């Protein structure tokens, strides 16, 4: 969460850059439908994952109430009352909130990746459909040059977005995996020792 707060400006820049992206309406109907299908699938997948995360957080919170025991795992330290209370409070309140926040970052990551794919598809479709419009050779050349300039500008915007995207998410994902890996291994070790 600290990293997300630290990288808050990077995420704001990402959302500002998305406003500069092209709309799928620039493409032919078949490509437009494919791109809309990609966005729809990504949106449905994000909704499904948010629902699954909410259900799992509710189960984590409600399970101790129904079982009359608290699932503290290996982190109980029952001989130390103060540390034991701290761990209980952390596991019941902080961990579900943090896991939900991390999952939301993953959903944003998924959405941004889909948007990058969509923008490159729009760009390639636009380049494939360069037409000769105009009455004279000079008008045709000017029109084609303007279209190519537009495509190059859009390509630069996409590359800037990818660079900002990597900067914003690289540290977050690195710390997520560096912290989750050892914790998962420790929990598995404790589960198999019993």
TrEMBL record:
Keyword field: Cell membrane, Membrane, Olfaction, Receptor, Sensory transduction, Transducer, Transmembrane, Transmembrane helix
GO cellular component: plasma membrane
Cellular localization per UniProt: Cell membrane
TM region(s), chain numbering: 48-66, 86-110, 168-192
Chief localization: membrane
GO biological process, alphabetically ordered: signal transduction
GO MF annotation terms: odorant binding; olfactory receptor activity
InterPro entries tied to this protein: 7tm6_olfct_rcpt (IPR004117)
Membrane topology: Multi-pass membrane protein
Name by which UniProt lists this protein: Uncharacterized protein
């Amino acid at each position: 969460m600290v990293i997300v707060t630290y990288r808050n400006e990077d995420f704001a820049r990402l959302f500002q850059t998305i406003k500069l992206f092209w709309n799928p309406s620039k493409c032919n109907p078949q490509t437009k439908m494919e791109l809309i299908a990609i966005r729809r699938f990504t949106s449905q997948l994000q909704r499904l994952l948010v629902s699954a995360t909410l259900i799992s957080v509710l189960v984590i919170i409600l399970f101790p109430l129904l079982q009359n025991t608290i699932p503290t795992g290996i982190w109980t330290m029952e001989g130390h009352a103060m540390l034991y209370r701290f761990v209980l409070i952390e596991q019941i309140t902080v961990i579900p909130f943090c896991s939900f926040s991390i999952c939301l970052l993953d959903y944003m990551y998924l959405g941004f990746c889909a948007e990058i794919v969509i923008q490159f598809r729009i760009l390639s479709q636009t380049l494939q459909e360069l037409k000769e419009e105009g009455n004279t050779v000079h008008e045709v050349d000017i029109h084609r040059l303007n279209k190519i300039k537009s495509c190059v500008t859009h390509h630069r915007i996409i590359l800037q977005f990818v660079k900002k995207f990597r900067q914003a998410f690289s540290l977050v994902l690195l710390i997520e995996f560096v912290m989750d890996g050892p914790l998962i291994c420790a929990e598995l070790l404790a589960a198999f020792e019993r």
